[in-house]
Amino acid sequence: MGSPWTFSEQPTLIDQSSGTVTLVDESTFTISGRIGDMMAGTAQGLFVRDTRILSRFEVLLNGDRPQPLAAVVEEPFSATFVARTTPRAGRDSSSVMVFRSRHVGQGMREDITLRNFGDEPTFCSLEVFFDSDFADLFAVKEGRGGDPDALVTREAGPAAVLLSYRRGSQSRGCELHFSPAPSSLGHDQAVFETIVPPRGEWKACIEVHPVIEGKSIEPRYRCGQPLERAAPSERLARWRRQVPQVETDDEGLKMAVARSSEDLGALRIFDPDYPERMVVAAGAPWFMTVFGRDSLLTAWMALLVDPDLALGVLQTLARFQGTDIDPRTEEQPGRILHEMRFGDAPSLSLGGGSLYYGTADATPLFVMLLGELRRWGLAREAVDELLPNAERALDWIERHGDSDNDGYVEYHRATDRGLANQGWKDSWDGIRYADGRVAQAPIALCEVQAYVYSAYLARAHFAREVGDELTFDRYKAKATRLKADFNRDFWLEDRGWFAVGLDADKHPIDSLTSNIGHCLWTGIVDEDKARLVADRLLGPELFTGWGVRTLASTMGGYNPISYHCGSVWPHDTAIVAAGLARYGLMDHALRLVGGLLDSALRMGGRLPELFSGLDRTEFPAPVGYPTSCSPQAWSAASPLLCLRTILRLDPWVPYGKIWLAPVLPDRITHLKVAGIPMAGSRVTVEVDGDDVNVEGLPPEVELVSEPRHPATAV
Question: Under a CB-based contact definition with an 8 Å cutoff, are residues 219 and 208 in contact?
Fold first, then answer.
């Protein structure tokens, strides 16, 4: 098996359109069918810390598979599956219904209830089949199972079964506890025999405990204990109480923001070594772990909801900031990690995972987010503690990121096991020339330079706050020089857009892509070029009516159902819209916001990781991408960034100002956002047409009822 981060294909065994149900809590998740069964030979199962600890979990009643009626997902980590006994020949109905209530968290609890709606006692034989291949998550993604050379042992007692796996020094296990004790219990099957009285019911509960290095981990939901007192339920309840409340007459915005809050609450991860810190996993089912770029961008977009998430992300990434040079993992001093994995981890601590650092953008994004968190006026002492990490990140940018000293950050993998592309479009063919040729590293991506520009400005303002004018001047000069060089070297005068990157010979990679919108977001684009870029982004070759294509339809290699060469990623479109708003191009920005909100409305409120780049004029709803992660962190946060774009909210608390200049799309006449966290206060903004009312501002700041000029924004 190759390294996890080199997997470049998309999984093929899960088809979301067929009714797959995914439940998630931190790094635990289940994938099942709509009847609740996890079928052997598929990508379904119960996964804990990147290992599938259950590869089969099926329920039969009287020898038959029950007939599915409904799958109700009550919370991100809980669902109830409703079925009935298969009707007998000559009957069109049955009297016994099966209710399977599943709760996921550091393992799993499943309550099975049989209800007899008939007038006679009914004999029921309930069979539960279970198995585990202890397959690594990436083996499952690639369509493989567990290691055939591994030793799997099984021990059955009266009411519990232990499945154990050992390969070399690594051991994993899975304990299943049954209450009440089954009538019979074997190594892969439990049988309950009971007579359910008329109009009565029978119940059983099954707990699934992961076992790591011989230690059984207690699941968060225990049989016989109140569900609402379990950690996932309590945390989600607290999260719901603190997130801002949105009132609006736009159904798409209302649904999308509500779904965003729920999904972000579910995707949070809490390290047992630092329980006060929360980070966010990239997405379910395949990326329930910390990703540098994904976590940083998600936290930025979610500042409107909870800046503490940004702080937790920064603290966690700082904890694992690179210190050594290791070509195998691409670690370098000061570099921020790309991905964390837990397959060999001996405990639940984040510190036990394996790390890979092959990303060009996470390191400048770290400094950017730290600067943005300061602007929101929160956790000043905690931000100050992270300034040395920002210094090390900036040192990486100049020493290792810019390996040829030309002023640009390039990437080139250290070995053939690393990612060939190390920007956010990290598939092997994600960066192309206009004629369709795939660009080869080293590559200096346009958005990476934009992030570096913003990181320099953030560092400059940190220096000014403490009166260090020498450092302020140094980094402001770096930013000014980078901006000038970028607008000279990346601009394609004959095309009217910026190159997506520079190749090894410093020639422009000349395709038209959505990446250029990220450059607007950071302010690196000269103002005389901004409208030209905006018109390209909203032109028919990029804008589908739902969102911005990753690659224009007129470019070689365009494919609307590819991963990065023509699909639409909601987070990408939301960032582009924020960039357009930064330059005052609100008509352009609101068209993109409207497209995303319409997409969310047609998808039940939840924006997936990506969807196809087919045009809105061809289809009345976005065409899905079948293996897209959902929920996915930065897609979940995208409506929140759109909400901030509509409000045109730019706090700069250290300078005593908050810019607020809402512009509502024509589709919205009323918008109220109550409880925006800012500098220890909770701010409420209410907009009715042209009337804006603001309450709860921190006493030390002045409200400026106009947008900030792009040149002043960090």
Answer: yes
CATH number of 243-688: 1.50.10.10
Whether the CB-CB separation of 438 and 432 falls below 8 Å is answered with yes
Residues 588 and 517 sit within 8 Å (Cβ to Cβ): no
Q: What is the pLDDT of residue 86?
A: 73
What count of residues does the chain have? 714
DSSP state of 624: B
CB 332 within 8 A of CB 400: yes
Amino acid at 620: P
CB atoms within 10 A of CB 319: 15
Q: Kindly state the DSSP code that residue 464 receives in the 8-state scheme.
A: H
Give the per-residue pLDDT at 227: 84
Pick from 24-33, 84-93, 478-487, 686-695: least confident: 84-93
H or E element at residue 633 = helix 633-647
**Residue 710: predicted pLDDT:** 62
pLDDT per position as a tens digit, 608-620: 999 999 999 999 9
Burial (CB count within 10 angstroms: exposed 0-12, middle 13-18, buried 19+), residue 466: exposed
Distance of alpha carbon 714 from alpha carbon 697, whole angstroms: 21
Q: 355: which strand partners?
A: 340
Radius of gyration (C-alpha) of the chain in whole angstroms: 26
Each residue's pLDDT tens digit, 104-123: 999 999 999 999 998 899 99
Residue 580 to residue 707: CA distance in whole angstroms? 12
| 110-113, long-range: CB < 8 A, 24+ apart | 110/36, 110/205, 110/206, 110/208, 111/203, 111/204, 111/205, 111/223, 112/59, 112/203, 112/204, 112/205, 112/206, 113/201, 113/202, 113/203
Whether 95 shows a pLDDT value over 60: the answer reads yes
Task: List, in sequence order, every residue forming a beta bridge with 70; answer none if it has no partner.
Answer: 82
DSSP 696: -
192 touches 204 (CB < 8 A)? yes
Cβ atoms of 609 and 628 closer than 8 Å: yes
Can you identify the CATH homologous superfamily of domain 4-234?
Answer: Glycoside hydrolase, family 65, N-terminal domain (2.70.98.40)
Question: What number of other Cβ atoms are within 10 A of residue 375's Cβ?
Answer: 22
Between CA 214 and CA 332 the distance in angstroms is 34
pLDDT at residue 660 above 80? yes
- Is pTM beyond 0.85? Reply is yes
pLDDT of 49 = 84
CA 554/CA 540 separation, integer angstroms: 10
Q: What percent of the chain has pLDDT over 90?
A: 74
Q: Is the pLDDT of residue 234 over 90?
A: no
CA distance 158 to 644: 57
- The DSSP symbol for 669 reads S
| Chain centroid offset of residue 435 CA | 32
- CA gap 249, 268 in Å, rounded: 29
With the CA atoms of 693, 697, 701 and 704 taken in that order, what torsion angle do they form, in degrees rounded to the nearest 10? Answer: -20
Spell out the domain ranges in the chain. 4-234, 243-688
Within 8 A by CB and 6+ apart from 27, the residues are: 48, 49, 50, 269, 281, 288, 289, 342
What pLDDT, in 10s, does the model give residues 329-364? Answer: 999 999 999 998 865 554 445 655 689 999 999 999
Which among 96, 89, 126, 91 has a CA at the least distance from the CA of 111?
Answer: 126
In angstroms, the Cα distances linking 56 to 13, 40, 65, 288, 578 are 15, 5, 14, 21, 45
Cα angle, residue 554 at apex, residues 542 and 425 outer, rounded to 5°:
60
Mean pLDDT of 486-511: 97
Give the Cα separation of 32 and 215 in Å (integer).
27
Q: Which burial class, exposed, middle or buried, applies to 159 when counting CB atoms under 10 A from its CB (0-12, 13-18, 19+)? A: middle
